Description:
Elements: E1 8-13, H1 18-26, E2 32-37, H2 43-55, E3 60-66, H3 76-82, H4 88-107, E4 112-115, H5 127-144, E5 149-153, H6 159-169, E6 174-178, H7 180-185, H8 191-198, E7 202-207, E8 209-211, E9 222-224, H9 233-242, E10 249-251, H10 258-276
The structure holds magnesium ion (MG).
Amino acid sequence: MESxxxxxxxxxxxxxxxxxxxxxxxxxxxxxxxxxxxxxxNCASAVVDWKTALSTSPVIVTSAVCSYAGEDYSDxxxxxxxxxxxxxxxxxxxxxxxxxxxxxxxxxxxxAVSCHIGFIPAERSEPLYGExxxxxxxxxxxxxxxxxxxxxxxxxxxxxxxxxxxxxxGKENLKVNFDPANMVLYxxxxxxxxxxxxxxxxxxxxxxxxxxxxxxxxxxxxxCALGDGEVDFPGFLKTLKGFNYSGVLTIEREExxxxxxxxxxxxxxxxxxxxxx
Length: 277
Ligand code: MG
């Protein structure tokens, strides 16, 4: 029997018109995306544009990726403070925004909504741990009514902590988007080992690469083109195959220079194809 190659996809942000965004994707010969929803997107008015564009496009949206106003990834302390739901003053508006993005995604027939919820404390006894459990349950319940999964980006905590957290939340529609580079960028452990531990919860993956942070610098590591960093991608693909992963290999590349970004996406596509061959 001929084995089917996993599909390669791309994370793109809904920054231009839907038509421009989809053309950007199809120009790479791809037809699967995770759609990043920036905090500035007016979901209510954008939904018609996206519905219309998707209805005549070969592109399938596998998830909506939520980001929030005020998030800042410049160093570890700032990530702790500003990303996800860890800081009380952002919490209510971000929970509301997540539900809004979920409704937008639902209108487009998208079955998953993902985000970084922020650093999950390693200790269950920390008040923040219980708060994150409760709000994740609340979001899961809301999304379940839309028939959607709530998907956590990995990497800001160890796989062991995340595994415990998934069990404590105890919701069937809570899943993981496994990003091996985040494990490297945040120094959260070996990505392949983590993938092995989390495998039964993995709904989707990001194909992203990076290098470890300078110890003691307080900074994150550096993202780089796929195959130039510390993630063992042939091993990653083999591990995915080992547990019959049937989702998409979604390339994520956050590079400010658009020319470099496009070149790195092309590199990622061609290397993934080589590694899979
Ligand atoms: Mg990611």
